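Researcher: Here's the sequence for the chain we discussed earlier.
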Amino acid sequence: MASQPTLKQLRYLCAVAQSLHFGKAAKACFVTQSTLSAGINELEQALGATLLERSNKQVLLTDIGQKIVARSQLILSDIEALKEDAVRAKTPLSNTVRIGIIPTIAPFILPRVLPGLHQDFPKLQLLIREDLSENLASLLLQGELDVLLLALPYPVKNTTHYHLFNDPFVLAYPSGHPLGSIKQLKTRDLKDQDILLLENGHCLRDHALEACKLKSSQLSLTFEATSLHTIIPMVANGVGVSMLPKMAVEQGILSSTANISTKEFSEKGVWRKIGLLWRAKSPRDNEYRLLGEYFKKTSSVE
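Model: Thanks. This is the structure I predict for it:
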């Protein structure tokens, strides 16, 4: 069985191709000229082809030698990339992370987190996918995403979750609404109110109902919005009241809208839990926990 070319032989060949001089190539490879020459001879024997034209005055590449050099350079480049990937794997958050984020979190948390994240982890490449929880969970299990940022709990088998912080709900109501005069607002005060929520499929709807101890059947309005930005003008025009995430309010979702006031609830537990979710037994578990610590440190709204 013929011997296989080695990486060392390919490096010798590329060094000769660079300088077209055996002495200079040997020096660049930190070997003797005889060692380099023997290595290239072995490469030619392994390939069954003459790669170099040798004379006392010059060294030239043959046609097949030029092709082998070009391919060798690609191989050596790939090997270096492989080594770099292995080194980066030992350095947390220095590779690509594919993260899925729900629409009621992404625009309000990413502006706070991304600038510092890129500064502290310059080699991290964060690929972001925004979608509903159900779709993101499917992509996670298919291996299309690495980690999710969403509201917990969300039922996905064989996953690890990491709680970041609680995001309180605040009541948004048109200015002058009777709820505005209540000093200690409680969830029971929402009874018989026209509450505007997102449509089914948005976990924000489910978490808002759960936090307020309400069921969909108790809502007097059948209107269901596709985004928070649809709900806000409805509230401003007196159609009803709504439950908004505090993170959205703090990021200015109401800044360009007049005639809306907000009020926090006086009781505890009127919030949604924000966290990360990833596949159980992932080899990058420690990385995702480090990412979670960073999100927790820079984006808490409590």
